[in-house]
Amino acid sequence: MNHKYICFIKLTVERYLKGYEHGDSMIKITAKFSRIKFLMERSLLKNGISGVYNMLLYGLTLKLNKDKIMGEPITVQLEPTGKCNLRCTMCKRTYYDEQRIQDLTFDRYLKIIGQFKYLNNIIFTGLGEGIMNKDFFRIVDHAKNVKKVDFIFVISNGTLLNREVCEKFVNSGIDKVAISFDGATKETYNSIRAGADYDKVLANIKTLVETKKRYGSKIIVHLGFVLMKKNAHQMKEIVNLAHGLGVSTLSIGVVNPNFTGKEELHSALAIKVDDKAVEEAEALAKSYGLGFEFARDVPKGVCGYPWQGPFITADGYIATCCVNPDPRTFNFGNVLETPYSELKNSRQVVSFRKHLASGGVPPNCTGCPLAGVHN
Ligand code: SF4
Ligand code: SF4
């Protein structure tokens, strides 16, 4: 599954909602305006006037950070499965005493997705490798062709991308796939992503890029690199590797304490970011025309997760976000048992939002760089 450095997903969601912003302010305004126009037009087309009204209410919620969500989310994060074939050193799943191995069955998916009338984006993430769910591509097909979701984003560890799976990725309507790749050399990669083979995953990514070219597909193939002591010296190498592979974008993020789960593990892995090395990696990426993101690009402000849309586990629980997907630790209720409309502004979640918005750090968010920075 995925690297889960939440800043990257936060960036993706925010850029999707706000429009991808770069360049001078006129370009920013134009990009924002075009994005809002696009979302409004899509809402009108899909849901008529009520869709546009919902977009306005939802947009206001995001803008004002109100404790109670107005309208309905247009983005949902779904965990396709709790199964994973790796034991990555920085992932708390590796250290669970008892694994959560349930899948998001097609039936569960239908029950969940039916509760979101205005859905426009789905991010398939969580603590598992989505492709291990046998219903995964059936779910994607339904989301794209029946539910008419505009943007489908999948995070994968890349180990299962054989020729057949690459064809499915390219032709199923997935808009973006992020492959976690935390080492620029075989030794480093294999020691971090235990159970994966560097050469095989590299070959898989090449197959995906070739398949994309063969079909003239617009799918964005993204490489994700989580910065740790073991690989911090490889920032330039990973840029070279990403360029050589022909992927569209690369992100480098810091290892999230919530993702590692244990404080002592996080201290053993985390490293102080060398800004100069980041700048050099960024300049190198720019010289190649490779899209590049670093976690520090995330705008400072309160974490947006409890407002933007729920993270829902394979068995229907609403968790705080993708770095805390284990409902055994904490959850806001189960949408397979209680309708989301009753859970979205429950006392529990409203108090959680208030806590975050006031600059506090709720117990389940300890150590997360996005908590406690509200200004
Ligand atoms: S062990 Fe699995 S879920 Fe955890 S980071 Fe690795 S691939 Fe993802
Ligand atoms: S602040 Fe909490 S809810 Fe937000 S991303 Fe961090 S851990 Fe998740």
Strand order of the largest sheet: 7-6-5-4-3-2-1-8-9
What sort of overall outline do the alpha carbons produce when their principal axes are compared?
Answer: globular
List the helices and strands in order: HHEHEHEHEHHEHEHHHEHEEHH
Question: How many strands, what sense, and barrel or not for the largest sheet?
Answer: 9 strands, mixed
**DSSP strand count:** 9
- Give the distinct bound molecules: iron/sulfur cluster
Which structural category do the helix and sheet elements fall into? alpha/beta
Fraction of residues in helices?
40-55%
Please mark out the parts with pLDDT under 50 across 5 or more consecutive residues, or reply none: 1-5, 16-27
**Strand proportion:** 5-15%
Rg over CA atoms: 20 Å
Q: Quick check: average pLDDT?
A: 88
Distance between the ends: 34 Å
Our count of helices gives: 14
